[in-house]
Amino acid sequence: MKLDHQGNAEVIRYIGSQQLAVEAFQGNLSSDFTNRVFATSNKAFEEALHDQSYTSGLTQGDQFHLVFVGENKTYNKIFGFVHLAPKVVSSTVAELLKVVKHLNQVPLATAYLKSEPISNERFTQLQSSGLVKNFETLPTKLREILQSAIDKPYTFVTLNNTQYQHFLVNKLNSELFLNKQGNGYQIELFRADSLTKA
């Protein structure tokens, strides 16, 4: 889910194990609701960021992934299973889930890209395993598409059919690790559920 301080909201429901986007919602929320959510989210991060991961080795359950964007474009995130998280975090998740009821369902894009910066430690490990591609060696058109996602981390960036075809032609995986000028990025590709039914 993406929600800004003006109340503009966008939700993409997806199946992570299949990299499949199944529903999309958009709309504008009231200022009271928006302010309450942001106030709660800030408190949740202040109390929970010291742990960050609430998983305890589990692989099943109601999962969440929250990202906080600071004033200086700094990003902090917490994730895991709702029932293992502190009360203030689980309450925030429950509040956000109510948002969809107030949004309009919209047609899915052909596909979506989501980017996330990679920590230095993980970036080094991925490079050692030979899993990182050099951004500059990719075709120009593909770099332009990937850059649009890198510029908007943690956001589902829409792809039209032509852009999606660039991924198919270049035989890229749905999960991609990039080295761009010494910085690491994880890129995930989510195709629309409608493509699997065509």
β content, as a range? 25-35%
How many E strands? 12
The N- to C-terminal Cα distance equals: 27 Å
Instruction: Give me the oligomer status.
Output: single chain
Q: What fraction, in percent, of the residue positions are helical?
A: 25-40%
Overall radius of gyration: 18 Å
Structural class: alpha+beta
* Topology pattern, helix = H, strand = E: EEEHEEEHEEHEHEHEEH
Stretches where pLDDT is under 50 for at least 5 consecutive residues are: none
Taking the sheet with the most strands, its summary is: 9 strands, mixed
Structural domains: how many: 2
Number of helices: 6
Mean pLDDT: 85
Rough outline: globular
Descriptive notes:
The longest helix has 18 residues, at 31-48. The chain has two domains: 2-105, no CATH class; 109-197, no CATH class. The two termini are 27 Å apart. β1 (2-3) and β2 form a beta hairpin. The protein has six helices and twelve strands. α1 (31-48) runs antiparallel to α2. Helices cover 32% and strands 34% of the residues. The radius of gyration is 18 Å and the shape is globular. It has 198 residues and is of the alpha+beta class. The mean pLDDT is 85. The strands form two sheets. Strands 1, 2, 3, 7, 8, 9, 10, 11 and 12 form a nine-stranded mixed β-sheet that branches. A three-stranded mixed β-sheet has the order 4-6-5, covered by helices on one side.
Write the layout of secondary structure elements.
Elements lengths: L1 E2 L4 E8 L4 E9 L2 H18 L4 E2 L8 E7 L5 E7 L5 H11 L6 E3 L4 E7 L2 H9 L3 E3 L5 H11 L6 E3 L1 H9 L5 E6 L2 E10 H5 L1
Parallel strand pairs: 3-12, 4-6, 9-11
Antiparallel strand pairs: 1-2, 2-3, 3-7, 5-6, 8-10, 8-12, 11-12
Helix pairs in contact: 1-2
